[in-house]
Design goal:
heterodimer, A: 77 residues, alpha+beta, 5-stranded mixed sheet, B: 132 residues, 5-stranded antiparallel sheet, 63% helix, rod-shaped
């Protein structure tokens, strides 16, 4: 199973992909999760048309949750 | 061609070269600004593609026609997300200011606000600055 994660940034987003047949790519995405957590950013998975759900490294299933987004950190303006 | 003519041609070439170089130096900041603008526009277009892929059909249509979209939280509260603010629709004159840090294109920021409202309204309210 393959999936992609979109990391929101100054360029719009940076997309990383993984393939469960290649454990190295899955480990890279796990590192993206850790980095997001360190930066106080939330990660979401797409659950349906227009819907999302927060996902963490603990709850992420690379076989099922194949469309992810790392949101920018939000602060009060 | 006489020596004087050669001198005239040489001088003309020198002057034209100097003028061209001077113009190049003067135009460099303008070119940098143009490049930065182009990169920013490209980033905004990328972010918009991502936003559209996460919106429901109704939200997509609203965003395309009005530049904003509504979200309904699990608690039933309705918010309208604009690029620069979020308004709570079922409470009069209630707007919130919340922004991404560091800077990201507006569409990325709107998507982050939508997802936070739809999944964790309490966190949104705890983070956002409410305008009175």
């Amino acid at each position: 199973m393959t999936g992609s994660i979109h990391i929101a940034d100054m360029q719009g987003d940076t997309t990383r992909t993984w393939d469960t047949a290649d454990p190295e790519t899955v480990r890279e995405i796990e590192e993206v999760f850790r980095e997001a957590q360190r930066a106080g950013r939330l990660v979401y998975r797409q659950t349906g048309e227009g819907k999302g759900e927060q996902v963490t490294l603990k709850t992420w299933d690379p076989d099922e949750h194949t469309e992810l987004m790392v949101a920018p950190r939000l602060v009060g303006g | 061609m006489s020596a004087a003519a050669w001198w005239a041609v040489g001088a003309a070439v020198f002057v034209m070269g100097a003028v061209a170089m001077s113009a190049g130096f003067r135009l460099r900041p303008v070119r940098w600004a143009g490049d930065a603008l182009a990169r920013r526009r490209e980033a905004e277009m990328r972010a918009e593609v991502l936003l559209l892929s996460w919106l429901s059909p109704g939200q997509r249509e609203q965003y395309r026609s009005r530049g904003c979209f509504d979200v309904v939280t699990p608690g039933g509260n309705r918010y309208r997300i604009w690029p620069w603010k979020v308004a709570r629709l079922n409470v009069r004159r209630c707007t919130y200011c919340i922004e991404a840090t560091p800077w990201v294109p507006a569409a990325d920021e709107m998507l982050a606000k939508k997802l936070l409202l739809e999944t964790d309204e309490r966190r949104f309210l705890a983070t956002a600055h409410r305008n009175r």
